[in-house]
Write a structure and sequence with these properties.
2 domains, seven-stranded mixed beta sheet, Aspartate Aminotransferase, domain 1, 17% strand, transferase
Length: 378
């Protein structure tokens, strides 16, 4: 049997990783400035994380949600404390797409409406409703297109209100900072107006923080930079540092009932151990402080590269934009300079999503390599 061929692959086979370094089967070391789509939050094979998972596996790795699991309670309490959202409740699942699915479903149950407002260049996942609210027709199958979704440009609040006035909108879903779409984000004015309008029209405001959450922006959630509160917040990626875990934080306006939401794997013992370890390390190592320090350093250092026309995003969720397609540059950075970066729908953009443990010295390494690669391509 062969693998279903849906991923274009670089001819690199990682076999070991530590913090921000990946080592391949030939012993070549790579600087990881992408974290596997922003999944690696506290560094590869972080010792406390590894120890907690090993210990948990020695005891119990999985059982269903039909029994008591104190690890779920511990995870919820620590997440509430670190995010500052202790009055919210937590539903656990296994991925970002699943988190967004459950958020959209819960919103629809809540107000008995179905239409969703999403935004141009958004990405929310590849499953049924999540892909329907993703602005990429290439990955939306006919069965997904049955969902009723209206796409609008970011930062045009008048267009949003025109749609909400029609009375059939269940939810508005928006990323704290757009990921795949190219690091665009709403302004503070836009986010604050959106919060008020959703409350006025009985519409659920869903913040997709799957990539932009967990300290990556310099605050626990990116939307907290705008001093707003969402009705539902979607989590995954950095939540488990590579172990599959996702969830939604649910504001007090919602009432739970048995059977309303459900999952087989969500909230299992091993996933919760991973989630607790991540929160403990973020707190003990003050990683959000590191994010802000390295972000400020990056903004100054990148000025050494005149070909860069703009830096987009915030914290350690960044896009470095040029006035040309960067696909050849990105390949050269990986193959010749041994540095992983990411791409985006914006073909002129390198995406930077390193572990939150990254040091300033690694930024220096990136800048030197980027300058060399650009010179060589000329």
């Amino acid at each position: 049997m062969n693998l279903f061929d849906v991923y274009p692959l670089y001819n690199i086979t990682p076999v070991k990783a530590l913090d921000c370094t990946i080592t391949d089967e030939k012993g070549v070391e790579y600087l990881d400035l992408y974290g596997g789509h922003g999944v690696i939050s506290i560094g590869h094979t972080q010792p406390d994380y590894v120890a907690k998972l090993k210990n948990q596996l020695d005891n119990i790795g999985f059982y269903s949600n039909a029994i008591q699991n104190p690890l779920q309670v511990e995870l919820a309490e620590k997440l509430g404390k670190l995010s500052g959202l202790e009055d919210y409740t937590l539903f656990l699942c296994s991925s970002g797409a699943e988190a967004n699915e459950n958020a959209l479903k819960l919103a629809s149950f809540h107000n008995n409406k179905s239409r969703v407002i999403a935004f141009d260049n958004s990405f929310h996942g590849r499953t049924s409703a999540a892909v329907a609210v993703t602005d990429n027709k290439k990955i939306v199958a006919p069965i997904n297109a049955q969902q009723i979704v209206t796409f609008l440009p970011l930062n045009n609040i008048e267009l949003v209100e025109n749609e909400l006035k029609k009375g059939d909108v269940s939810s508005v879903i928006i990323e704290g900072i757009q990921g795949v779409g190219g690091l665009d984000q709403g302004t503070t004015e836009f986010f604050q107006a959106l919060e008020k309008l959703c409350a006025a029209y009985d519409v659920v405001l869903i913040l997709d923080e799957v990539q932009s959450g967990y300290g990556r922006s310099g605050k626990f959630f990116a939307h907290q930079h705008h001093n707003i509160k969402a009705d539902i917040i979607c989590l995954a990626k950095g939540m488990g540092n590579g172990f599959p875990i996702g969830g939604i934080l649910i504001s007090p306006i919602f009432t739970a009932s048995y059977g309303l939401l459900g999952t087989t794997f969500g909230g299992n013992h091993l996933a919760c151990a991973a989630g607790i370890a991540v929160l403990d390390v973020i707190e003990s190592e003050k990683l959000m402080d590191n994010v802000n320090d390295v972000y400020a350093y990056f903004l100054e250092a990148i000025k050494q590269v005149p070909e860069v026309i703009k830096v987009k995003g915030r914290g350690l969720m960044l896009g470095v934009e040029f006035d040309f397609d960067v696909s050849t540059l990105r390949k050269k950075m990986i193959i010749d300079k041994h540095i992983f970066t990411g791409n985006a729908n914006n073909k002129n953009l390198l995406r930077i999503l390193p572990p939150l443990t990254i040091k300033k010295e690694a930024i220096d390494t990136f800048i030197i390599a980027l300058k060399e690669a650009l010179a060589e391509l000329k």
